[in-house]
Design goal:
five-stranded parallel sheet, globular, seven-stranded antiparallel sheet, 3 domains, alpha/beta
Length: about 425
Amino acid sequence: MSESLSNGIGIIIDNDIETDPDVKQIISKIEEKGIPICKFDSISKAKASLNNLRTINFLILDWRMHTSAIDSQETGLIPGTTPELEEADARSAIEFIKELKSFCFAPVFIFTNESTDYIRDIIIPKLTENGLYFSDDSQNFIYVKNKDEILRGDIIGDATTWISKSPSIYLLKIWENAFLKAKAQTFWNLYDKSKGNWPRILWKSFEKEDEDPKSSINEVIFQIIMAEVNLDLLEKEKILASDTSYNLKEIKSLVSSTMYYNSNLNSNKPGDIYKRDGKYYINIRAECDTMPERSGSENIYLIEGHVFDNSKLKDSYKKNTGINERIWECFIFLLEGADIVQFDLRLLTVVKAEDWKTYKLSRLLPPYITHIQQKCSVYLSRIGKPRLPEEIEEDLVSSSSSRPPASGTQQTP
């Protein structure tokens, strides 16, 4: 792969990893490019290490492992070439790929000794049956190739070409490289500025403000990292190379996934959506004010909403500006299969969060909740922001009278 697409460790799983000259040659060609390889001689061993494979560059998997001694304990089959063993090998590979998907997003290369016909007639149909392979190569994260063909060509070049034709994998590689670079820069910058004390400084500062240190530190880290991340290397032609069609259902599903968060909803945050007695409610209260330790109140501010009749939408829609809201209403889209839910800013309810926790449905993410909060600003006292660490505040206050004004500043008469 090119430098921009090859960062990270490669994984190879093959039961003949120490004895097969072809496997050794494949490993050698990859390592010549400066890419380190982690080797497993059975799927069982790789499964035991899945938690450590979250940031891998790619994975190479032998389709026919011929069941190693360790794996045969799981399948109950004796190593050899039988139809039962073929099926067991296929099932084992497919189950492993599915499990891998829950730990990381990475391209999977299946390199096999099987013929091109076997790949076309057996391997690809089995992957397709299990929702792991598609007729349009641009949709695939799995690349299947005969080992002999791989060795006759350019392993890294062929893989790079394939990745460039798969927008999901290509975008992953570009973004991941930018993110990992920004992450390292951010953590070293914070470390160097505080001699490694930055976690303790932030924790004590947030704790003193009665804010949740865990979520607040998490927010600080991601704000800095995402400010550093850029996708300047992304090429429009590679993203738009495929002419694969997509339907309205797929578009709605994608957009919905960018608007709502549906797990780990234990804390109270602006954007929390509740459903009770057939009506929807959304919390607009600032996060810092929903912390009892700080505000002395466990109340949340809910505005009421209901499914909107699309037939009434024609008066609100303009082609050049989209769907427009009246001053007293806010729309959210694609919630629970409903095209539009209309919230009425005039219907504000103050309730105890504890009494409503069993009705919590989802959470609307920024910038959508930010837009609603801004429209509801008449009901909000403020949008909270982190306070400076106490040491900085005291330093600013104590030195304000003795320190001469900075050059170019105007003194108050």
